[in-house]
Every structure is written in C-alpha cells, then in structure tokens.
Automatic annotation (TrEMBL):
Keywords: Carbohydrate metabolism, Hydrolase, Magnesium, Metal-binding. Its cofactor is Mg(2+). One of its GO terms (cellular component) is cytosol. This is Phosphoglycolate phosphatase. Mg(2+) binds at residues 13, 15, 178. The lineage of its organism: Bacteria, Pseudomonadati, Pseudomonadota, Gammaproteobacteria, Vibrionales. InterPro entries: HAD-like_hydrolase_sf, HAD-like_sf, HAD-SF_hydro_IA, HAD_2, HAD_sf, PGP-like_dom2, PGPase_prok. It comes from the Bacteria. GO terms for molecular function: metal ion binding; phosphoglycolate phosphatase activity. The keyword Magnesium applies. Belongs to the HAD-like hydrolase superfamily. CbbY/CbbZ/Gph/YieH family.
Amino acid sequence: MAHLEGIRFIAFDLDGTLIDSVPDLADATDKAVQALGFPPVTVEQVTTWIGNGADILISRALSRSQDIDPDLDPALHQEARQLFNRFYEEGGHKQSKLYPGVKETLAAFHQANVPMAIVTNKPSQFVPHLLEQHGIADYFVDVIGGDTFLLKKPDPFALHWLMEKHQLAASEILMVGDSRNDILAGKAATCYVVGLTYGYNYGQPISASDPDIVLDHFSLLADVVKLGS
C-alpha cells in the first residue's frame, strides 16, 4: 500500500465519500419534479447527476440528463429548487448512512490529532445536521459547504483557504473524495488527492481522473496517511 509522508491536514468530501446520501437526495428530487408535473426520476439517474451542488442536480433532473437543457426556465428551476429543499429537509436524511469504516477511521485520525475539514458542494444548511446525526461532527475543525464561498469544487478556492488559515504547504494537505470535482480541486491546489471507488462519479471510474492514490475502502486511508509519522 502506497503511503503519503508529511500530511498534516485532511479535507473530505461528504456525499459519496463519508455518507451514502443518494437515497434521500433521490427521494427529494423525485418529489420536487413530480410536484411540478414532471415524470418520476430514479435513484440510478440521480446517482449520475449529483456532485456539483443542488442547483445543478435540479437542473439535470428537470432536463432528465447530465447535460442541462439550455432553454430551462429559470423560474421553473427556482420553484423546483425550493421544493427540493423542503422535501430534503422534511425527509430528515433518514435513509442516509455512513460508509463502512468511516467512523472508526475518522476517530483514529482525530485521536492522532490530525485536523480535518469537510469540503462539500452540498448546500451548507444541510451539512451540520448530517454530521451530528451520524456522530462525526466533532471530528472537523472546518465545514465548508457549496455556498460558503462564491467558488466551489472543482475550483480549489476552499482548499487554498484552508491552507492559508492553517498555515499549510500544499504538500501537507490531502483531499479525499469520490468524484472528479474532488480530484480536480485537489490537483488545482497542488495537494495530494485520494480517490474512492465506491461513490458517485457520473458513472465514470474515479481512476480516470488520475488521483494520486485510489482506494476501494475508506478504512485503507489509515494505511495511506501514516499516523504518528
């Protein structure tokens, strides 16, 4: 197993990396589009549409494609997004669950005094409840949502912000994610990147985005980042 030396900080994506949230996202998306008279959407479809934030997810659902309809009515989109927010909140994220090994591995890093952050494109309003619900909120020193800054992944802005705040060199921060947006953000920030194979990546293998290391299981991260080294 390849491992990385000198990592002092780890940034994690959320959906598809720490939490399998697609059942709740798909449910809220389906209810939103059906409320507007559109045909239902499936979990399989939504799995290929998420990763760029809720606005793009809803645009893709209304377009019924990963490619957004350029003639999509902005007013319709806004109404669908508001419905999505309502249904997603009302659902209480009850179908979402941590991936195997996530809690134990995060606990080990926390115990080893490795500071960690969330860098997700999910709207900020939904993130704290999810972290609390799964008992992992206390592990993160920063939580950055898709609307925390003007720029979100694949832009490296959040990673640069973390580097500046925590006085880190690019070689000292690791980005861990499941989609090409995570890999592109990490590469643009010139930090190390681990890609996970089990998440949501538009139906493409994460290896195609050329992360530094590819892992099939979250717990293997403890072997990549040598604790106490």
